Amino acid sequence: MRILIGKVKDHMDSEVEISGWAQNIRVMSSVLFIELRDVSGTVQGVLLRKGNEELFNDLKTIPRETVMSIKGLAVKSQAKIGYEVQINHLDILNKAETPLPLGVVDRIDSDIETRLENRFLDLRRPEILSIFKIQSTISNAIRNYFVQKGFIEIHSPKIVAAATEGGTELFPVKYFERNAYLSQSPQLYKEIMMSAGFDKVFEVAPAFRAEEHNTPRHINEFTSLDMEMSFVDDNDVMDVLEEVIKTAFRSVADSNQRELEILGVSNPTIDYKFRRITYSEYVKMANEKGIDLKDGEDLSTLVLKTVGGGMNEFYFITRWPRALKPFYVQPHDEQYSRGFDLQFGELEITSGAQRVHSPEVLVNNLKAKGLNPESFAFYVNAFRYGMPPHAGWAIGLERLTMVLLNISNIRETTLFPRDRTRVTP
RNA sequence: GCCCCGAUAGUGUAGUGGCCUAUCAUACGAGUCUGUCGAGCUCGUGACACGGGUUCAAAUCCCGUUCGGGGCGCCA
Q1: How many helices (H) does chain A have, and how many strands (E)?
Q2: What are the tens digits of pLDDT across the range A101-144?
Q3: Of chain A residues 146-165, which have a beta carbon within 7 Å of strand B?
Q4: Which of A71, A93, A156, A407 would be A89's cystine partner, CB 3.0–4.6 Å?
């Protein structure tokens, strides 16, 4: 019965069976060592030539990354981790070809392009695996949080008829005799669920954006963690967001000590209150830094870098001008809205808002943005027969992972990134 | 979509008109070595993205193509 390599230390002085990839084979004249790796770690298998002549000669030429299964005695030894497995039986399950298109344990760093082209090999590296173990903890922690708080998990359609926010480009899809699009956000559907009376919903699902951007923080398919709540306002859901992020980070600190160590990241637990800075205050901060920016203009990358770049923490930017936010964001007054962003330094992690719930306001907003309310009828109708006040937000899972691990390229926190030029693997 | 930059063995690099028959490391192959753990040592195989041009001479200069990187816009 195979055990994980990480469990070998619990079976000292007994026979174990382990399986995995031979990441390094060191051959001396009368003894050889095989470093075997699986999802849980690595251990050294040792084989003396004496008494194992045939097996020894076979293994001398076995390529790295060959998949094998080893049976042997787990013993304390002078190995660096303090123990090893004395091989007494070995099965080659699948030989690897040579040379590898990408060295799994080479000390040479490959370009991200080469790594993504050979992602299955890249992902074998413990530090890359660690990123995705941690990402799994984050999404599970958030899911658990929502479930515990009585949220209903939903699965909204990813093939849609209309744009959701008007602004971003959509991927067209041929839908039989009609044209449809890949969903850029579950926004409209999670709001409809408020009208449906589900009260609190969340969804973890892909979102598609056809923007031709070429930056380290954009991809064309990402994982959106969405939530929406009824009978609350923007401040309430900011409270929830802060708690969700703190819960997720604490969960990683609790369950991924080994992965954090491999990645050289210190304890991610957050012990400060997220500041809430109004958009107008932010503009003043930019002005004080010598940037010419008028109240009402969008915050450019330069502004966010100049003001936010020095802030190594989470903070909200609240009360955005209505003109800069989508039609579904609740107005605060003539000029400002109940929309907010959560930033970490210069990077936007979340956008959210108290939403419009009055059908009249909604239709006026749609018109004001140059959109035709008719084409949003399926959505507007949900507001006409009893829509509660509601608010919500969406986090980019990959961006949140970047922040937690201090990684600067979103492709690193995406298993198989879809960017401007990459559709495979 | 706009601006800038780049492309040399499997991987990562050196190279700035002739000294390039192209550097180094790693990988790969052969050999050697009684416990390694980035094993060591010896020998070997392996590359100038593609197409055109300038020149006595091009990895090197020019043009185009393809692919990639960075920045901006936009966003999570």
Answers
A1: 12, 16
A2: 999 988 778 888 899 989 999 999 999 999 999 999 999 999 99
A3: 165
A4: A71
